[in-house]
Amino acid sequence: MKILIKDVVILSMAGDDQPIKGDILIEGDKIKQVGKQLFDEADEVIQGQGMVAMPGLINAHQHTPMSLLKGFSDDLKLMDWLTQKMLPAEAKMTPEDIYWGAKLSMAEMIKSGTTAFADMYIHMNEIAAAVSEVGMRASLTRGLVFLEDDGGKRIAEALELIERWNGRADGRITTMLGPHAPYTCPPEPLIDIIKMAEQMSIPVHIHLAETKEEVIKIREKYNQTPTEYLYHLGLFERARVLLAHSVHLTRRDIGFLRGIRGGVSHNPVSNLKLGCGIAPVIEMINQGIVVGLGTDGAGSAATVDMFEEIKAATWLQKLDYGDPTVLSARITLQMATINGAKLLNIEDQTGTLEIGKKADIILIDMKKPHLQPVHHVESLLAYSVNGADVDTTIVNGKVLMKNRKLLTIDEDELFEQVAARALKIVEGI
């Protein structure tokens, strides 16, 4: 199957490449050619006049089934949000609920330009099945909490997910190990996870220093910051990591992260909405730490539109520093594309539009009042575009959305399923 995208403005996000007007040829699941006036007998031709082609956005931290709880628990403090609303609701979710909730998140992600995501939840087989059917790219993780003895059930499920799904769905699915957070993972089981990750060459996806309360808990229990706790257990030395949030870091903490394999997923909208604080993104970047962007779950962020994260990320740092020059449009777009690919350990496959890489491409319709005139493409993408401006989403060479119509998800069926399931889940809570 060959797809030719014609006459489109191409933002490759590779190195210092500037936007060019040209064509993109997709053959199978890869980008075959990028250039001006390409001629080929393609099976499908997509006219790109008035559009920008860029790498699909990469959501580096998600809890996809939380889409069923969107708008259910707003305006609460994080621990109240978690204990009074999220945990009781999640306890009522069936595997089928998880499947449909994940699918709802995927529908929103595809329609707002996300092509790959990192997910941490329960009933991960159902989420993997949804990913396989829908056509997105994903790094999947079974969340692991060790506050009570479950007889090794969670670990068994995590290992089964890796065995069953790693590299499946035409290579679109990869896996990680997912200890939930320092405050839910005592040293002994966490050391075991680190050993497994090292032996299996599987990355570790973990929440880190999301709230002040977490910092206080770890300090009282171990006389360390959460980052010190993970550092002294050997996580950063022995495993590749995806650290979600990393809001409350000291300068010393950032020093512990210098040189890590992997990096940090910054989730500004969720952090803003829950009042968690502003992550020290500039300091981390200055220390050579890879920082990508994630939405967190829709239960906290209320959206999984990555263009909202792009805006929030750059605006927060400019405000925090009182300096409009920090975290430029270009750097923030890199966070949402190639940096996200590095966090998911798939930068050799995606994150830029280059010959030989997987064809994960989005087309953004610029023929709209809020996107005209076009002085600087990158500035418009970072500061003006929203998810509804995405016209076409392609993953692994397959068109998942064209002209705003989803091609691998029946939206009518989806809405019917999630409406009934969501009401049942929250009833009585």
Give a description of the structure.
This protein is an alpha/beta fold. Helices cover 39% and strands 23% of the residues. It folds into 2 domains: 2-56 and 357-406, Urease, subunit C, domain 1 (Roll), CATH 2.30.40; 57-343, TIM Barrel, CATH 3.20.20.140. It has 17 helices and 17 strands. A hairpin with a 2-residue loop joins β16 and β17 (405-406). α2 (95-111) packs across α17 (411-426), α13 crosses α14 and α14 crosses α16.
The backbone outline, from C-alpha atoms, is globular
The biggest beta sheet reads: 9 strands, mixed
Structural class: alpha/beta
Summed up, the domain count is 2
Gap between N and C termini: 50 Å
Q: How much is the average pLDDT? A: 97
CATH level 1 class label of the largest domain: Alpha Beta
CATH architecture of the largest domain: Alpha-Beta Barrel
How many separate helices? Answer: 17
Residue stretches low in confidence (pLDDT < 50, at least 5 long) are none
- Beta-strand level of the residues, as a percent range? 15-25%
User: Percent helix among the residues?
Assistant: 25-40%
Number of strands: 17
User: What radius of gyration results from the CA coordinates?
Assistant: 21 Å
CATH fold-level topology of the largest domain: TIM Barrel
CATH homologous superfamily name of the largest domain? Metal-dependent hydrolases
